[in-house]
Amino acid sequence: MENIHDFYTKMEDGNILLSFKGEVTSDLLTSILQIMESKMETLAEPPIIKKKVYNILVECLQNLYHHLENDDLATPMNEKSALFMIKKQDDEYSIMTGNYIMNENVPSMKNRLDTINSMDTLQLKTYYKEVLNNGEMSTKGGGGLGMIDIARKSGKKLEYRFDKVDNKFSFFSLNVKVAQKTKEEKENV
Amino acid sequence: MEIIILEGTPKTPTVEFKPLEGYLLLRGRSIPENSIEFYKPLIDGLEAYNQNPQPTTNVDIQLEYFNTSSSKCVLDVLKKLEVINGNSKVTINWYYEEDDEDMLEAGEDYQAIINVPFKMVEVEE
Question: Is the pLDDT of residue B52 over 90?
Answer without folding.
Answer: yes
